[in-house]
User: What shape does this take?
Amino acid sequence: QGVGFQEVLSSIQKRKGKDVKWDSGKMFGFVYHPGDIRVCIRS
Assistant: This one.
């Protein structure tokens, strides 16, 4: 589980920095908003 997730997350963090947000309790996935990236991880 989470294959390549760390690499993707690191890439997003480098690009967006503090704009990376976490929503626990939701299914894993990436939601892209204008100027914002939301990372959803299934708890």
